[in-house]
Amino acid sequence: MRIGMPHMGNLYIPFKALFQRLGVDFVIPPVNNQHTLSLGVKYSPEGLCIPFKLTLGNLIEAAELGADTLLVPGGSGICRLGYYVTIQEQILRDLGYNGEIISVGFSQHKLSGLLKTIKHLSNNAPWPKIISAFRFGLAKLNAMDRIERIVQKVRPVEEVKGTANQLFTKAINAIDKANDYAPLKKVQVDYINQLNQVTKDDIQPLIVGVVGEFYVLLEPFSNLDVESELGKLGVEVRRTTFISEWTKFTLFLNPLGVNEKKRIHKAALPYLKRDIGGDGWESVGEKVLHAKEYDGLIHLAPFTCMPEIVAQNIMPSTKEDIPVLTILCDEQIAKPGLSTRLEAFVDLLERKRRAHNN
Amino acid sequence: MEAYLGIDVGSVTTKLAVLDKNDKLVTHIYLLTQGKPIEMVQQGLKQIKQQLPKDVNLRSVATTGSARYLAGVIVGADLVKNEITSHAVAALQYNPEAQTIIEIGGQDSKIIIVRDGIVTDFGMNTVCAAGTGSFLDHQALRLNMTIEEFAKRALDSDTPVRIAGRCTVFAESDMIHKQQMGHRTEDILYGLCQALVRNYLNNVGLGKEIKPPIVFQGGVAFNQAIVKALQEELNTEIIVPLHHEVMGAIGAALLAHERIADNNNGSKFKGFGVSEVKYHTSSFICKACPNQCEIAQISLNGQVLARWGGRCDIWERDPSSQKL
């Protein structure tokens, strides 16, 4: 059995660690690039969203590399994501793929479902071995996110632009190579130290929250790496959504009745009373919740994403008032247009702050 | 004489403006870019030099517009600024009370919302040029008349024809249909103006609170028929500043002056001599990863001055040191 799955940020690293420990053959398709996107666009219905197109591209590339078991994100009641498995399977079959397709419905099965899937994939490995491999994967996930949080803080203030990003790339590679807890710990401490020692300018960066749909938030290729662009413009990015946080709550704490999103939903209530699928409710809630603490908000949405379109149209009416720039992500998005808007948005925030201080 | 230069290189036109130390407009130049941004910047510099006194001392230079980085490298700009900020700054200089700024250029159109003299929101056309000057240019070409004649004749319309303006191509089919039905050319022309205004307000202006005073600038503000259509659609007075077509360049010059106040390190301006230099541009496909980015580069005497166009910044970091 050779397993392949779509990309989302660096998520392949914890999965690689997990499958390595279980002795399962795991193939990693090329990280998202123009070719992946072209493949996805070519074989997808045009009106579908960029997460669908990119993940389809990944699956095709994984199959080309010999994967005979594809893990496809699915589940129901979220948004169109619920139909991904069905449509992507159809497309892959039409393209001549004969292997197995397994729906990984994170939101539905929660922890037990995921573990059962892993047991099946590992050819019925003993439970202790599965749990141990799963824990190690989680440890890598947590290490990556811990470092990324610091990278977000260093980007706007680093003296030499690009330093934090270079360290981040190196850190991710080192985490990937770490084969046990001790080296992993060392990598983490090492890179956190290096990031802390980067020479920094003495400036008070603007704070911009990045909210919106889960996939486009976490896959830099789909949003033209908007966080790095903002960093270059001297803006500190705050993001609530991290895969490690999501995993912690969805798999472990939500079943115990702890819901981190309650706060966000409560904040959204005066403007939106219910879940509208995807992350639309959270986008509105985050604006309300963080209006005082952030200077502005970047709202990322896949083009044609209904939950985020609803959120986009509700946002201007909240009385908690901060500037919002909505960026629609699809295969048409281009860097010059994005840069112009980001630069203008940052100017707007900068001038607003200056006027406020005077 | 102490002066500040702003250069706005857009898709269709190139504008230069010089301000004195009191931010008063000394002189300005308006040229067609014609797809040759480097040559036009050089030509603009040459022309503007002739209009300036001999003792002129350019203390700071800023570039803006879609070719702002390219222009910045050529002239040695102290500041490279996006066109949204430049337009807002210029509009507020002449009309401090403005609450809405409409700017319609050759291939883009913007709306800028201002409250208490501070920009609070903006919008810009995304995927389509149907609400921009190029739309009108294209239709004028089809009707075999100049854009100036287009504007003049459109004002003679008394029963404008409703034309679908969502898409330039479909607008054309609709226009041909109306011609075949026997409608007057004047009525079709004004119908096109109304279509542009509707398209602009429905796309760029969507969800924005458009409050007066409204300032209208950009090349399309030359077109009195569009001004009239905007006035009718918004049911309020539209202010067109005297130098509406060079407001981007004026804004850049204002920002260049503002920069001096913050940081007076002398100017990086390379002098008017750059109008004589021969720049070389080329491009290549980067092979560092599978993204196949098209990297453009500009060089002078074999030395690369700048590179851009990649998804990442490996070619931008230090252009002179990297080999292909």
How would you describe the overall organization of this protein?
The complex is a heterodimer of chains A (358) and B (324). Chain A is of the alpha/beta class. Chain A has three domains: 2-123, 3-Layer(aba) Sandwich (Rossmann fold), CATH 3.40.50; 137-154 and 158-202, no CATH class; 205-358, Rossmann fold, CATH 3.40.50. Chain A has 15 helices and eight strands. In chain A, the strands form two sheets. In chain A, strands 2-1-3-4 form a four-stranded parallel sheet. In chain A, strands 6-5-7-8 form a four-stranded parallel sheet, with helices on both faces. In chain A, helix 1 links the parallel strand 1 and strand 2 (25-27). In chain A, 46% of the residues are buried. Chain B has helices at 37-51, 68-75, 83-94, 133-142, 147-154, 168-180, 185-203, 224-234, 247-262; strands at 2-9, 13-20, 25-32, 57-64, 79-80, 100-104, 109-115, 118-124, 214-217, 238-239, 280-285, 294-300, 303-308. Chain B has three domains: 2-87 and 248-276, ATPase, nucleotide binding domain (Nucleotidyltransferase, domain 5, 2-Layer Sandwich); 97-240, Nucleotidyltransferase, domain 5; 278-324. In chain B, helix 2 links the parallel strand 4 (57-64) and strand 5. The chains are: A alpha/beta (358), B alpha/beta (324). Chain A binds chain B through residues 30, 33-36, 162, 224-225, 313, 316, 323, 328, 332, 335-337, 339-341, 343-345, 347-348, 351-352, 355, and chain B through 66, 81-85, 117-122, 124, 126-127, 207, 289-293, 309, 311-313, 317.
